[in-house]
Amino acid sequence: MAWWCWHYEASFDLPDVLFGLSQLDGVTVTSATAEGDVTDSKATYTLGAVQQYRQGAWVTLGRQEPALAVAGKKLLLRQVLNGPSGQRTVPVSFTVPARAAGQRGSISMTGGNFLYSEAAYQSSLAKILKAVREQVRNDEVQADLSIFGRKLQIQKRHVLGPVDMVVNGNRRVRVVVR
């Protein structure tokens, strides 16, 4: 086993949050209880291709093939997940605002196991609780659409899943808006 793996990393979320709570004025942590399921499986998904639905077919996006979006319309995508027993897909769509016409941007897909939570490092109990509720799980995928232009900044995010295994990896593809 490599020096780092998700089994190791997963053990830090609860202690980090407990530490963060203990740093708040007036808070003393005297005990904590957690429940979890343990399996001996090391199987995970890895992010594969990002695909766009165009004219009745799924097109694999990449360096030479950006996502082609139409301002004011939905951009239909799916993330391919590669696993030990084959592939599966998770769909996502973004409505591209009309004001984005003529702009460029990117779509970023990140496996939940590749994301780090700042939940423990918030300045109040309410902020810690909100961050924990919004934290992307390690069996989910975070999808981000970013479009930037002159006097224009559009950022949208969706969380996909959960799926049946931990998801590793990240993918980024360009977006061209007509």
Description:
- 13% of the residues lie in helices and 42% in strands.
- It contains 3 helices and 10 strands.
- The protein is flat and about 60 Å long.
- It starts with 5 loop residues before the first helix and ends with a strand.
- The model has no long low-confidence stretch (mean pLDDT 92).
How would you sum up this structure in a few lines?
By secondary structure, this protein is mainly beta.
Map the helices and strands.
Elements: H1 6-9, H2 13-22, E1 44-54, E2 57-60, E3 67-69, E4 74-83, E5 86-95, E6 104-111, H3 125-134, E7 141-149, E8 152-160, E9 166-168, E10 170-177
Parallel strand pairs: 1-9, 3-10
Antiparallel strand pairs: 1-2, 1-4, 4-5, 6-7, 6-10, 7-8
